[in-house]
Write a structure and sequence with these properties.
CATH topology of one domain in chain B: Cytochrome C3
Helix content of chain A: 25-40%
Order of helices and strands of chain A: HEHEHHHHEH
Distance between the termini of chain A: 34 Å
Number of helices of chain B: 7
CATH superfamily of one domain in chain B: Cytochrome C3
Number of helices of chain A: 7
Structural class of chain B: mainly alpha
Shape of chain B: elongated
CATH architecture of one domain in chain B: Alpha-Beta Complex
Shape of chain A: globular
CATH topology of one domain in chain A: Cytochrome C3
CATH superfamily of one domain in chain A: Cytochrome C3
Strand content of chain B: 5-15%
Strand order of the largest sheet of chain B: 1-2-3
Strand order of the largest sheet of chain A: 2-1-3
Oligomer: heterodimer
Amino acid sequence: MNQFLPPRQRAVLTALVLFFVAGDWLGQSTQAEYGDVVINNYSDDAGMRPVVFPHWFHRIRYRCKVCHGDLGFEFKAGGNDINMLKIIDGEYCGACHNGEHAWAVENCDVCHSAKPGTPTQVHESTLQKLIAPVDRP
Amino acid sequence: MKYSRSLQLIQLGVLGALLMGVALAALSAEKKDPNKFNRLMTPISERNPPPAEDGIHDPESFGTELLQTPRASFSVLPRSPSGNYVNWTKALDDGAIEPRYHRDDADAGPVVMDLNIVREVKGSMPNVVYPHKQHTEWLDCSNCHPALFIPQKGANQISMAQILLGEACGACHGKVAFPVSECRRCHSQPKLEVSKTE
């Protein structure tokens, strides 16, 4: 087959096939953990990836009351006006992510790890499923 | 020379179209088999995928690699049929997890209140038994009272429609606590048998 295809055209063809395969891969349905919260109040506009907060990881270590009572997190995705200034001043995530209780803010990518453009949401929530059924083939 | 070049181009075009056709057909066949078994359900083997494959985390992000995979964490926890597929209440009761009640104090314990509230419901569903005990293990009174629930008998009208939309119990159940598909965990008290005789 290669005899019919000069190298340059072969490269173009390969690129095209790869483009479609990659496109299909990007379009796959999301299956993030139940309760994962995506926060994109300011991230996209600021050129950062949105934040993914893994509820499951935190509830293994802390009861709900610690964040939702003591630290003042509202029960609403995007309902807390969190920004990096508040975090470095010890509010919200910064109450623990300060280098004493948990790793500090220099690990930007560990929180800011969502695909760019992912909207604020509680992933897999009943409300999300009611409004936009997940397209599973 | 000219003829052979145009022939070559035609060959290339046909070959390219064929290849694309085969590639796309293979992809769409895999993706859109209309008669796939359990079309709408996530196969058990695909549940709790690692962050890089979950569709929300960016596999290109350096931080994504550092995150723990849910499967590794959940492998030692009791299972449930929905949500994270973890029975969090049982995990806490069994001591499989020991979440802190206070940020700084690993020994601080919750103020547990053991009081069941029975709510008689319409229709054929069993009545709801709301256990304060399991809730106060995780939460503070002020998380629910008075904003979500007025602490007074009969003061809170609750419907499944509200819950589905994220109000009342739905503030947590359907978002992070077990979802409404686990009906029996709330609707747990059988109604008294009503006689159908005249």
